[in-house]
Design goal:
Layout: H1 9-24, E1 30-34, H2 41-46, E2 48-50, E3 72-76
Antiparallel strand pairs: 1-2, 1-3
């Protein structure tokens, strides 16, 4: 099994592109970028919710986190729920 440090930016980009496509084809109204507590300033600046067609591509350009960018997409389901 590959570790995060073994994953290339190209692989991360492909994984996150697939995740965004799954989110867009589901019930999400928007997409949120989530970052880890050890995120770099670039990732912190991009943290938040975006329109489905306006989200920046992950991994984020300019990320300086050791081991590479670990920002991920998550669906925003604000029109659905209990």
């Amino acid at each position: 099994m590959a570790t995060a440090s073994d994953t290339t930016d190209e692989q991360r980009r492909a994984e996150q592109k697939a995740a965004l496509e799954r989110i867009q084809s589901g019930l999400a109204t928007r997409v949120r970028i989530l970052v880890a507590p050890d995120a770099c300033p670039v990732c912190r600046a991009h943290e938040g919710a975006y329109e489905l067609d306006g989200a920046p591509e992950l991994p984020l350009e300019g990320c300086s986190r050791a081991g590479g960018c670990n920002a991920v997409y998550a669906p925003v389901l604000d029109l659905y729920g209990p």
